[in-house]
Amino acid sequence: MKLTVVGCSGSFPSTESACSSYLVEADGFRLLLDMGNGALGELQRHCGLYDLDAIFLSHLHADHCIDMCAYFVARYYRHGGPCDPIPVFGPEGTEHRLTTAYGDTPSASSMSEVFDFHTVKPSTFELGPFVVHTERVAHPVEAYAVRLEHGGKSLTYSGDTGVCRALDELAHDTDLFLCEAAFTHGKENIPDLHLNGREAGESAARARARRLVLTHIAPWTDPQVNLADARAVYDGPVELAAPGATYVI
């Protein structure tokens, strides 16, 4: 598997990065995890506009899904006619959420003409070359972490979450743990919303993850503090996600 960080800023885009979006490729299949603010423009640096094979939305907050509205325009109004529907996996109500955000023009069902919506629940299924495992995590809205397995290797993406056992179990022995670290240890303390750097490191340690990449760090958070906090509690390799960074798993 090849992971490319399209965007990794939390809550809103920074001057350096779009919001959450991650391209995962294997055997010629391209899966996009989330498409937050600014991600569609950045995606085109790494992938053709119409070359995605599927999209997974961890949850329906704008910083993880709102550029789907722009992608609808690109697919629906393409010169030569609308694209064939691409599979989109998201929590219950994904189609309604995106239609509400975009507006019901030209019709209330137009989104489904270019997006084939599938409702995510805790489950295991095959998607292209991947075996996909999903678990609900701790967030104010319905949100899912996802584990992708291919060729004996695994990638686990937390989405947005507070501390929860489901995330630790999903990431057990994973080769790369792409984990959010939006908060700062000792500063924000809001249960079931986000992790801080220390909590992300503790989750990686409990899961015995082989590598930790911290992501979804908001522009007002000092990433170096979160990196140091994670390293204090996790003995494996840990680094900060950066736009354009790639990992071969």
Description:
The structure is a single chain. The chain is an alpha/beta fold. The chain starts with a strand and ends with a strand. The mean pLDDT is 97. The longest helix is centred in the last third of the chain and has 11 residues, at 197-207. The protein has eight helices and 14 strands. The radius of gyration is 17 Å and the shape is globular.
Q: In angstroms, what is the radius of gyration?
A: 17 Å
* Strand line-up across the major sheet: 6-5-4-3-2-1-14
In total, the number of strands is: 14
Shape: globular
**What is the tally of helical segments?**
8
The largest sheet is:
7 strands, mixed
Helix-residue proportion: 10-25%
Question: What fraction of the residues are assigned to beta strands by DSSP?
Answer: 25-35%
Structural class: alpha/beta
Tell me the quaternary state. Answer: single chain
- Overall residue-averaged pLDDT value: 97
Q: What low-confidence regions span 5 or more consecutive residues with pLDDT below 50?
A: none
SSE pattern, N- to C-terminal: EEEHEHHEHHEEEEEHEHEHEE
What is the terminal-to-terminal distance?
Answer: 5 Å
Q: Could you provide a short overview of the structure?
A:
The protein is an alpha/beta fold. It contains eight helices and 14 strands. The protein has helices at 39-43, 62-65, 68-76, 94-102, 111-114, 165-170, 197-207, 223-231, and strands spanning 2-7, 21-26, 29-33, 54-56, 86-90, 115-119, 123-127, 130-136, 144-150, 153-157, 176-180, 212-215, 238-240, 246-248.
